[in-house]
Write a structure and sequence with these properties.
13 strands; alpha+beta; Aminopeptidase
Length: about 350
């Protein structure tokens, strides 16, 4: 009887050819690209890696940020935890489906040998991620819904926008407001619109992405990362967004409107403009995301739900790999190991 091939296990760094090869084997998104992960780490901290586990017949890749834990006490020197970057990274699988559970076991074993205490993953609602491979091997938690447009039926995608928004969009067009794509001379204006919006919303400090973050994304993701701006009849930027296109999937990423024009809601115009742009380019899905913190009760989710009736569940996956160290970290942070709020990893709740 032939012995099964051993697993190749590694942390891949951006630039490793195995990372690009894996992306060629599995449907993926913006959040799996090495350039995106590097830019995310520059803002979020930590080291960018892809957890890679493969045999000749199958494989798995997970983009991760590795974060040191020494700040919790000198006894934790050398220990790490792993988390997804902002967005919807999700594990990627290719090859023999039956090998999925074995790939997950090999991944967890490898992480433990690298002194990774816990792992937190955000799943992508629009990619196959073989949740069955994680049964009994991780906890999967639901976090509400994300709203998306189905671009395969142009007429339906327009009529799924509620009548009040369709009327507002038509009125803005009649008044001379327009949408421009990839006019990078307007990039600074879009960044300013985003920053003004975060101030109006009193967003948490995490969401005040610096200009360097936007610039890093543009530089690292040519041809994938795009800009849309809305213009007044006089040619002034009223709002804008940055978004991505990968494999027929558009991710509505970061957006904002200038204080002066917030009352006309430029987002209505550039959402419809992005819908039309995606249809013209043959894309199948425009993901608008969910509410703040995946809430379905806030104004942001309600705004998006008035543009489409289509939703998908957003889930996260979590696993404690070194239970004794996890409990010690919780004690050092002064928090109970089982947090009623569901925050994970619990020891970072107050960080």
């Amino acid at each position: 009887m032939t012995e099964p091939a051993p697993f190749e296990q590694a942390f891949l760094r951006p630039g490793d050819p195995r990372w690009e090869a894996a992306l060629g084997r599995a449907p993926h998104d913006l959040f799996h690209l090495p350039g995106y992960l590097q830019a995310a780490c520059d803002h979020e901290g930590g080291s960018p890696v892809a957890l890679y586990v493969a045999t000749p017949n199958a494989g798995m890749l997970i983009p991760l940020i590795l974060r040191p834990l020494e700040s919790f006490g000198p006894e934790f020197k050398g220990f790490l935890d792993a988390t997804s970057p902002y967005g919807y990274p999700s594990p990627l699988f290719w090859g023999e489906p039956a090998l999925g559970p074995a790939l997950v076991d090999a991944a967890w074993d490898f992480l433990a040998t690298q002194q990774v205490v816990s792992i937190f993953l955000r799943l992508n609602p629009f990619l196959p991620h073989r949740e069955s491979a994680f049964e009994g091997k991780a906890t999967v938690c639901g976090h509400g819904l994300t709203v998306y447009m189905d671009l395969t039926n142009p007429e339906e995608s327009w009529h799924n926008i509620n009548s009040a928004n369709r009327q507002a969009i038509s009125k803005l067009h009649r008044l001379g407001h327009t949408v421009s794509f990839d006019d990078w001379s307007k990039y600074d204006d879009m960044i300013e619109a985003y920053t003004q919006t975060m101030h109006r919303l009193k967003a948490s400090p995490f969401y005040f992405f610096p200009k360097s973050y936007f610039e890093a994304l543009r530089e690292a993701l040519p041809g994938t990362f795009h800009l849309a701006t809305t213009l007044s009849p006089e040619g002034h930027v009223t709002g804008g967004l940055v978004f991505s296109e990968v494999g027929g999937l558009i991710q509505y990423f970061l957006t904002g409107s200038m204080d002066k024009y917030a009352s006309i809601s430029p987002a209505k115009l550039f959402l419809d403009g992005l819908r039309r742009w995606g249809i013209e380019r043959g894309h199948h899905t425009l993901n608008m995301g969910g509410g703040v913190g995946a809430s379905q009760d806030d104004g942001l989710f309600q705004f998006k739900s008035r543009f489409s009736k289509h939703t998908r569940a957003f889930r996260t996956l979590r696993r404690v790999l070194l239970p004794d160290t996890y409990e010690a970290l919780a004690r050092s942070s002064g928090v109970p190991t089982e947090d009623p709020s569901g925050f994970f990893p619990v020891y970072r709740r107050s960080v």
